[in-house]
Amino acid sequence: MRISDFQLKDIVNVTNGKKLGRIADIELNNATGAISALVIEQTGKKFGLFGKEEEVIIPWIKIVKIGGDVILVRHGELETTEDER
């Protein structure tokens, strides 16, 4: 799969079903060349006038499924330990 294919997909959080945005960049592992994280650019508006952009880093391990149109990720949920499960 090409990076340009990734950039066309919407990123959806499986924890709450909300769309996080689209991929702005990727982080690569220098040693292996593998993707280590996705950088998502979120765009929101304050008071309907001013654009506000924030980046969200999604580690590769948090990707649940890569589909034809979307990438499902786990973001914002509390980490649980083995004892809590």
From TrEMBL:
Domain (PRC-barrel) ranges: 1-75
Pfam families given in the database record: PRC
SUPFAM superfamilies recorded: PRC-barrel domain
InterPro entries linked to this entry: PRC-brl_dom (IPR027275), PRC_barrel-like_sf (IPR011033), Spore_YlmC/YmxH (IPR014238)
Name of the protein described by the UniProt record: Sporulation protein, YlmC/YmxH family
Source organism: Domibacillus enclensis
